[in-house]
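A quick word before the example. In earlier lectures we treated sequence and structure as two separate objects. From today on, think of them as two lines of the same record. Here is Anti-sigma regulatory factor (Ser/Thr protein kinase) written that way.
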Amino acid sequence: MTLRSEPSSVEVARRVTLAWTRCHCRLSDDQVDALLIVMSELCTNAVQHGRRDSFGVRGWMPTAGELCFEVDDRTPSAPLSPGRPDSEAESGRGLFLVNALVEELGGTWGFDEDGSRARCSLPLPGDDR
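And the structure line, produced from the sequence above:
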């Protein structure tokens, strides 16, 4: 889906992600909550750092055991990496949080070479749950 680059679009992305994961994925409530935080942080980065009027969000399941999604702000830049801001910093914790949550979920994430697209891959629980 394509969303306008404005703060209210982050909530739209969260709601769509919540509905999609509840219908198509077998994630626990805690896993869904973590995924929504990851989505929020990546969409917030797209709104704050993208230089376009819109950004894209896409989710898919390439296999029965994997969930993939991407947030594309269509703005090439140097790929960002998680930082560790000091305790007085008012921002800069988003990618640190993304990294910690994706790791906790057993997945991987990163940016494309040109820095415009963040991609994430998470394992899905099997039928034996």
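Notice the following. Helices lie at 8-24, 29-49, 94-104. We will return to this example when we discuss secondary structure assignment.
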